[in-house]
């Protein structure tokens, strides 16, 4: 909501009172001027669930498609799937009970009136209030169509908008639970020593309720990123859009030496090279690995065994695991380089 500076609310309130006929109250203040009917109409644009506030007009899904493609698709995607980090407008059905629901017009919004109201008042993002009533009807119809709520022949009008049933219309209810005071505990309190905090490489994370790889925040930024990328691919897949997973060589393409090195890598190298911690070249990051590969395997092996300080950071001798044999390190280097070619 917006907030008016302290002194400027008076003329507005006075104007509102004027229209309701309590004219006398406006006079004694002797400041400002009464808002005209036109000025009030300029503010009074909200549309209610029962359709009150909708202007006359209509628009078809077909007309909406063209308008949407030229005015909205650059941010919200051709199918409402959202480009980059711009909001998603379609799909996400049945995700509301998930840990990370996809809340869209179709999956979440309880009333179609909000769609008309919001597009009319706020979109396109760079030119709010530039759409006519008919254009707004048409684009709203198209967004409903993208969510399978209406069919492609549908024409949205002032009269039929309120009768549209949104999938999540019963998902909202009044919270009638009584307020409960949250009192500070002064005696017989939980023992703080029994609360578990665990240090991870990414920092201190309370992990009692986190499970890596589960549909919940992961215990490190990198794992979280991989999880989100995976979810994004699944979401796009459900809309029929395929995106390739980041390239990492399959095990079937690895040499016997590299396969023998996986275990060493998991035990002694992954802490830095799995995530790129401290400047370590990340497994599978071809851009970081290719200039290193150009140095030749002998040099890389020497650096891994004896340690190496480059422009990005410090590689400790054998990754800090001097108990490992040179041969084990050789296999680990083979594994890392082959995975990252
Ligand atoms: C330049 C990018 C851009 C364009 C173009 C654009 N939008 Fe948006 N849209 C946004 C952003 C950013 C938001 C979120 C605004 C906010 O939360 O304050 C948004 C939010 C929305 C929402 C609400 C989404 C939600 O679930 O909260 C709808 C509906 C919407 N836009 C429809 C449209 C329509 C229809 C058009 C074309 C007439 C359009 N937008 C054009 C950037 C854009
Ligand atoms: C404590 C973090 C850490 C661990 C553990 C670690 N590395 Fe590194 N490693 C680095 C960093 C940082 C670099 C990059 C240094 C630079 O280029 O500035 C690096 C670079 C390398 C390179 C490339 C060297 C070059 O010349 O470009 C190889 C090969 C390598 N590591 C192998 C390993 C192997 C094998 C292990 C496990 C046995 C391992 N590392 C464990 C931090 C680590």
Automatic annotation (TrEMBL):
Keyword Signal in record: no
PROSITE patterns reported in the protein's UniProt record: CYTC
Cytochrome c domain segment(s): 59-147, 256-340
InterPro entries for this protein: Cyt_c-like_dom, Cyt_c-like_dom_sf, Cyt_CIE
Protein species of origin: Marinobacterium stanieri
Gene3D superfamilies: Cytochrome c-like domain
Domain of life of the native organism: Bacteria
GO molecular function annotation: electron transfer activity; heme binding; iron ion binding
Protein name according to UniProt: Cytochrome c
Pfam families: Cytochrom_C, Cytochrome_CBB3
Protein keywords: Electron transport, Heme, Iron, Metal-binding, Transport
Record has Electron transport as a keyword: yes
């Amino acid at each position: 909501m917006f907030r008016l500076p302290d002194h400027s609310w008076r003329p507005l309130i006075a104007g509102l009172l004027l229209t309701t006929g309590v004219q006398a109250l406006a006079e004694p203040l002797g400041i400002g001027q009464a808002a005209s009917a036109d000025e009030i109409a300029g503010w009074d644009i909200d549309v209610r669930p029962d359709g009150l506030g909708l202007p006359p007009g209509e628009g078809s899904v077909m007309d909406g498609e063209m308008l949407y493609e030229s005015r909205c698709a650059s941010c919200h995607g051709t199918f409402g799937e959202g480009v980059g980090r711009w909001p998603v407008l379609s799909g996400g059905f049945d995700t509301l009970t998930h840990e990370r629901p996809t809340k869209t017009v179709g999956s979440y919004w309880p009333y179609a009136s909000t769609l008309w109201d919001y597009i009319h008042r706020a979109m396109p993002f760079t030119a709010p209030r530039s759409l006519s009533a008919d254009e707004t009807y048409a684009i709203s119809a198209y967004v409903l169509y993208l969510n399978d709520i209406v069919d492609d022949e549908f024409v949205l009008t002032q009269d039929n908008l309120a009768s549209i049933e949104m999938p999540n219309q019963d998902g909202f209810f009044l919270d009638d639970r009584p307020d409960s005071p949250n009192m500070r505990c002064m005696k017989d309190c939980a023992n703080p020593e029994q609360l578990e905090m665990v240090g991870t490489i990414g920092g201190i994370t309370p992990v009692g309720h986190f499970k890596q790889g589960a549909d919940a925040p992961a215990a490190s930024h990198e794992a979280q990123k991989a999880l989100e990328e995976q979810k994004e691919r699944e979401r796009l897949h459900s809309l029929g859009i395929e995106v390739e997973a980041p390239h990492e060589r399959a095990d079937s393409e690895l040499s016997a030496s590299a396969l023998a090195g996986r275990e060493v890598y998991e035990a002694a190298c992954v802490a830095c090279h799995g995530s790129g911690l401290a400047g370590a070249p990340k497994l599978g990051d071809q851009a970081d690995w290719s200039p290193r590969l150009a140095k030749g395997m002998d040099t890389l092996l020497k650096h891994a065994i004896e340690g190496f300080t480059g422009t990005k950071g410090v590689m400790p001798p054998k990754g800090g695991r001097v108990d490992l044999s040179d041969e084990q390190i050789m296999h680990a280097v083979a594994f890392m380089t082959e995975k990252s070619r």
